[in-house]
Write a structure and sequence with these properties.
Shape: elongated
Helix content: 10-25%
Largest sheet: 6 strands, mixed
CATH class: Mainly Beta
Number of helices: 1
CATH topology: Immunoglobulin-like
CATH architecture: Sandwich
Order of helices and strands: HEEEEEEEEEE
Radius of gyration: 19 Å
Number of strands: 10
Structural class: mainly beta
Length: 149
């Protein structure tokens, strides 16, 4: 019986992984200070005081890349949007990011920040849309943070 249970678990695990080749972003992580590659101080309660910097970290997986001169490069188009609690877009930034690597990249990390001095007290939603330029796949991550006086 135990042998069949292990076999069932292995088959279930393999089936769960099939078809997961789609470009993916992690959830947005709000940070207390500037994040680095898989090194950050997560703010479990994403509440910031006015004039405090809102730091954001996320990672991308399963993207295409190109090999160039014994190194690799991934290319992304990003759209960074901030919405107020009424659903109005109060900030939008668009940027192309070229990320080089000496080895085949498994993931890339992104960091964004918001200077909150101009934000009123309230609830805000961040929407980050990333397009893997080489595969033309797009995915979006959203997160909510709070500004207090």
């Amino acid at each position: 019986m135990k042998k069949y249970m292990v076999l069932f678990v292995v088959i279930t695990f393999l089936c769960a992984c099939v078809g997961q080749e789609k470009f993916t972003l992690t959830d947005i992580t709000f940070c207390a200070n500037e994040p680095a590659d898989r090194s950050y101080d997560q703010k479990l309660d994403p509440t910031y005081h006015q004039k405090e910097t809102v730091w954001i970290y996320l990672e991308a997986f399963r993207f295409d890349y190109r090999e160039e001169d014994q190194s690799y490069v991934a290319l992304f188009d990003t759209i960074f949007e901030v919405y107020n609690e009424k659903g109005n877009c109060i900030h939008q930034g668009i940027q192309q990011m070229e990320i080089p690597s000496k080895s085949k990249p498994v993931y890339v990390w992104f960091t964004f920040f918001i200077e909150s001095g101009h934000l009123e007290e309230g609830i805000y939603t961040v929407r980050i849309t990333v397009t893997d330029t080489f595969s033309d796949q797009t995915t979006t991550a959203e997160g909510t943070f709070y500004i207090v006086k």
